[in-house]
């Protein structure tokens, strides 16, 4: 095609390198299906350092990805976090991908750094260690000291990286369009959505100003907490290719000998780290997308430091509410509620509802009565989605990856760690911020919680009834199954809502005014109305 010829001409050399690497590692089906085998001769053939005949297909792909550089490594890491799309054989292999590479010599970094600083490094910094603290595929990190005496970290993008990544993204974008058009069976892998996620993440990491802003966004969340530390940004020296920030002294949470020597209470630390992560995700809707041990530091004074904000996740209010519903369904062992949340997330998908219902019930049964391993539970949940041809929204997939990573770190600190229990205080704060009214008594707050519970039941029942009726156009059994039970459930829920609304309206609108008047009789009447209404709700709940 002309368009294919144009893309190949524009990025001919890079396309040849990609094809040669893929062929060299035996990933020939991809090359053949995309029709790029002929361009491999444009690049020098790379001979793998291992005998690929001894490697499985996932192992070959992983090795090829590492050889292709940061764009493909990032794509592989995204897919590694998607058990709703790939089988364990693939996700486990892709999890081995790493972005650590051999550092670029200082002589190559120095010209670009000094161009961005606008002055020689030894003028800007009182001290500068030219041996990098870390070298990744996107940037290298150095330690330095300002003339003011402050210790800082200097992050520098690798020279010439943007040109390569932009070429890779153009080629991958074109390949995605071919896949969508020519092979619709790959639609469930969401190639266009994965491509948008990849491009957004990489362009974000290529602009270190973006990381600096992310850092300040997270810092603002914890501005009223002394126990959570986020590094200060030195904006006078920060630009697109250079980031200068405060150096944080601390111990990685997986360095147990140093933690023990410092007398750190690891159980308390696990609770505090979880509380901080969930405050970001559930309360604020902005969270650290990769809270692995290298990005968290245990600091003196029982503090926790977070670093490296190249990528952050964001959750809308609606998504956060759905997540609370999911957690609630799991805790209540409610298979119907779990199924309703899944259907809410699938959008235009048309799953087999009978199979999905059985899968939801089996999932609840597997995790009932056992000590919950939250990481394993989320992975199992995403596997259930894949087995039912469902795919998680990208924002939730990012959150789930963060939760699984955080859960693994906390379990290293406390083998008996239970994220559900640890999440309790944050979840309560979230519910209070949504459903309580400032200045109300605890009794009125209880009414608000009851109202939320009753209201949340009705959409679930109606949603399940509608999708089952829709499916019933094809399968009569599903159309008739459980209609009477659903009707009774809707009637009960409607009655609860009616009573709860009356009680809540009285409590929230009239009670405060009565209390202002200071009339004991009115206060007594108001309390009686609330108690009677709550009692009526309890009786309705028990009458099943």
Automatic annotation (TrEMBL):
Source organism, top-level taxon: Bacteria
GO molecular function annotations of the record: kinase activity
InterPro entries per record: ABC1_dom, Kinase-like_dom_sf, UbiB_kinase
Transmembrane segments: 517-540
Domain (ABC1 atypical kinase-like) ranges: 96-340
PANTHER family xref list: CHAPERONE-ACTIVITY OF BC1 COMPLEX CABC1 -RELATED (PTHR10566), PROTEIN ACTIVITY OF BC1 COMPLEX KINASE 7, CHLOROPLASTIC (PTHR10566:SF113)
Family, as annotated: Belongs to the protein kinase superfamily. ADCK protein kinase family.
Name of the protein this chain belongs to: AarF/ABC1/UbiB kinase family protein
Lineage, opening ranks: Bacteria, Pseudomonadati, Pseudomonadota, Alphaproteobacteria, Hyphomicrobiales
């Amino acid at each position: 095609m002309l368009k294919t010829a144009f893309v190949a001409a524009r990025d001919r050399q890079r396309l040849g390198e990609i094809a040669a690497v893929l062929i060299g590692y035996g990933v020939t089906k991809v090359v053949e299906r995309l029709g790029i085998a002929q361009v491999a001769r444009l690049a020098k053939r790379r001979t793998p350092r291992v005998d690929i005949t001894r490697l499985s297909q996932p192992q070959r792909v992983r090795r090829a990805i590492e050889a292709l550089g940061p764009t493909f490594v990032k794509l592989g890491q995204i897919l590694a976090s998607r058990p709703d799309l790939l089988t364990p054989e693939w996700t486990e292999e892709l999890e081995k991908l790493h972005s650590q590479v051999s550092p670029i010599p200082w002589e190559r970094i120095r010209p670009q750094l000094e161009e961005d600083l606008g002055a020689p490094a030894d003028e800007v910094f009182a001290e500068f260690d030219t041996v990098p603290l870390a070298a990744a595929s996107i940037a290298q990190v150095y330690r330095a000291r300002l003339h003011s005496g402050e210790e800082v970290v200097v992050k520098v993008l690798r020279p010439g990286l943007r040109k390569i990544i932009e070429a890779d993204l153009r080629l991958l974008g074109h390949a995605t369009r071919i896949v969508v058009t020519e092979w619709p069976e790959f639609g469930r892998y969401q190639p266009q959505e994965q491509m948008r996620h990849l491009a957004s993440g990489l362009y974000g990491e290529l602009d270190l100003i973006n990381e600096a802003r992310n850092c300040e966004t997270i810092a603002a969340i914890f501005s009223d907490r002394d126990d959570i530390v986020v590094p200060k940004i030195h904006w006078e020296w920060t630009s697109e290719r250079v980031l200068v920030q405060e150096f944080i002294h601390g111990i990685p949470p997986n360095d147990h000998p140093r933690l023990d020597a410092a007398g750190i209470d690891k159980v308390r630390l696990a609770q505090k780290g979880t509380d901080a992560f969930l405050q970001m995700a559930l309360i604020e809707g902005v969270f650290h997308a990769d809270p692995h041990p290298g990005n968290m530091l245990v600091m003196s004074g029982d503090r926790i430091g977070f670093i490296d904000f190249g990528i952050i996740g964001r959750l809308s209010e609606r998504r956060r509410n759905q997540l609370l519903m999911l957690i609630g369904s799991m805790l209540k062992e409610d298979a119907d509620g779990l199924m309703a949340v899944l259907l809410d997330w699938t959008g235009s998908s048309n799953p087999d509802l009978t199979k999905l219902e059985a899968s939801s019930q089996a999932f609840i049964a597997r995790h009932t009565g056992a000590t919950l391993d939250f990481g394993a539970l989320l992975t199992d949940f995403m596997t259930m989605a894949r087995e039912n041809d469902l795919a998680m929204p990208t924002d939730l997939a990012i959150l789930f990856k963060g939760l699984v990573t955080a859960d693994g770190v906390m379990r290293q600190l406390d083998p008996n760690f239970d994220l559900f229990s640890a999440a309790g205080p944050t979840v309560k704060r979230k519910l209070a911020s949504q459903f309580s009214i400032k200045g109300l008594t605890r009794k009125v707050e209880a009414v608000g919680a009851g109202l939320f519970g009753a209201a949340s039941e009705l959409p679930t029942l109606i949603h399940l009834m509608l999708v089952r009726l829709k499916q019933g156009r094809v399968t009569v059994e599903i159309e008739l199954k459980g209609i009477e039970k659903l009707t009774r459930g809707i009637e009960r829920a409607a009655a609860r809502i009616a009573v709860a609304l009356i009680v809540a309206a009285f409590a929230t609108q009239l009670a405060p005014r009565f209390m202002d008047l200071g009339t004991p009789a009115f206060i007594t009447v108001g309390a009686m109305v609330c108690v009677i209404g709550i009692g009526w709700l309890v009786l309705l709940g028990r009458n099943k």
